Amino acid sequence: MEEKFAHPELRTPENLVYKRTDLLVDCPLSYCPGCGHGVVHRMLMEVLEEKDIASKTIGVNPVGCSVLAYDFMNIDMLGAAHGRAPALATAIKRLWPDRYVFTYQGDGDLAAIGTAETIHACNRGENFTIIFINNGIYGMTGGQMAPTTLPGMRSSTSPYGRDIDIMGHPLKITELIAQLPGTYYVTRQSVQTPAAVRKTKKALRKAFDLQDEKKGISFVEVVSNCNSGWKMTPVQSNTWMEENMFPAYPLGDIKVNGELVK
Amino acid sequence: MGELRLMKGNEAIAEAAIRAGCDGYFGYPITPQSEVMEYLMVERPYETTGMVVLQAESEVAAINMLYGGAGTGKMVLTSSSSPGVSLMQEGISYMAGAELPALIVNIVRGGPGLGTIQPSQADYFQAVKGGGHGDYHMIVYAPASVQEMADFVQIGFDVAFKYRTPVMILSDGAIGQMMEKVYLADPVPRLTEKEVIARCPWASNGRPMSRQHNIITSLDLDPAGQERLNLVLQEKYRKIEESEVMFETIDCEDADYILVAFGLSARICQKAMNLARQKGIKVGLFRPITLFPFPKKEIHELAKRVKGMLVVEMNAGQMIEDVQLAVGCDIPIKHYGRFGGIIPTPDEVVKALEETIIGG
Fold this sequence. Notes:
Strand order of the largest sheet of chain B: 3-2-4-5-7-6-13
Order of helices and strands of chain A: HEHEHEHHEEEHHEHEHHEE
Number of helices of chain B: 15
CATH architecture of the largest domain in chain B: 3-Layer(aba) Sandwich
Radius of gyration of chain B: 21 Å
Largest sheet of chain B: 7 strands, mixed
Strand content of chain A: 15-25%
Helix content of chain B: 40-55%
Order of helices and strands of chain B: EHEHHEHEHHEHEHEHEHEHEEHEEHEHEH
Largest sheet of chain A: 8 strands, mixed
CATH superfamily of the largest domain in chain B: Thiamin diphosphate (ThDP)-binding fold, Pyr/PP domains
Number of domains of chain A: 1
CATH topology of the largest domain in chain B: Rossmann fold
Structural class of chain B: alpha/beta
Number of strands of chain B: 15
Number of domains of chain B: 2
Number of strands of chain A: 10
Shape of chain A: globular
Largest interface: A-B, 33 and 41 residues
Strand order of the largest sheet of chain A: 2-1-3-4-8-7-9-10
Helix content of chain A: 25-40%
CATH topology of chain A: Rossmann fold
Oligomer: heterodimer
């Protein structure tokens, strides 16, 4: 194989500071360059590797940009119908109570077509983890308005900006499910800076740790960019996200140990 | 040695599922089948066999719970009635596409729409022709007694796993609600997790590092790949048509005329057949037990020996299309149906036979 590195002599075990986890399949991701999905995939797989639970983990991915997530995560996975991942995960966790189970869903999947499944799985206090990627748009289908699209925000089905008089309000589903007695840990994170990525990973780790306690849903929202759907460069989209998405979807823990954070 | 009990059809389904070693039931209340989940909640198999019983928030959730459970290799069951089964069609299509074994019970009521809560057979097309989107079939059993409601649970699970396909028991509100004696087989234990993994090496239930990951999906964005999946499914349905046909004939040997009916209609036709024979009309009964695969060859052969067939259904004429396709145009084939929850009487059936076939 052709040596790709300028200084191969430096590639020694003691110099190794980072290695891609084998739980990520070595293939091109289907995500647009600049998108946050790939980072969340990596954090998620690293958490499973560090906890050494990959062989005991079952993932459920949605319909949306991450419809092919099962190709990238080298663990047993099921592809759900649009919005139904929490229903699958409910049955899986109940039938295999010693497995770690997670759903990985976007905003259209989790907060529009799958609202009922999301709310009821959360309210029943199922013992799995929901990972919710919120970029305020339907990415895969080409940038249509999502339940979390901000007022005034443009999309292909709100080309003049979301008019709340006509199109209704953005749905803050994370705040909503945090109110339910069946959720135990609810947090909102992001992945646009190294510091944010580290926080997200910590949140994912906590979410999986909590599955051992069987006290209810652990829910990690990641506010992410969609540079393609928002029609921006990756850098512009992250700035726009910080200036516009974060005020509407403030980062941080919303519920910890079953108690709402004041 | 089994056990003899007096039970409702719906209860027999539930008890048979526990005894068959079913791992999970997921359902949503709807008349006339709510006794299935009610019986399970009273029996609490989660405390005895470990079977999960869960009331879902909708039929949509229930069928997707089934998809999730089936995708991990577990034996899972749901039951509903017509409007609820309509809601399940998307999930059933996904299960057919992902090749997942599961058992779905439809205790049919009159439609369309909210319809009525009285018995009907108007969901024949939906059950037999696919129901959801895409080219697929379920194996469909049509019980005509409480005994068969129980029997087809074990049989249904067996074929579901044999072919990795969703299987439906298509019954109706009368058989679901009526009480009959039923012989129940001895319980078999649920499979252990190890046994589930051995039986379903394709299932997603946790990847040992000795193998690559399993993926349960019906998606293939490459049209060539999706066509391959379709060809696999079609080959599966061909094998099912070859091997899994079930039917019953009564007094067909000397018959001039044949009543063709499934489920409850076949029970009524048995009485009608006796009434006709008392009048000197030689009538036999052909009862398809599997609606898919349909007993095409058997009906085709039978048609060569008789003067006509009356297809009796509690619908506006659905199975008659399959009978006509099987027979061709050689003999008269007519339909007699009542709808919307009305059950035909044996006298009506005899009259229809006399008027449309014999005198027609």
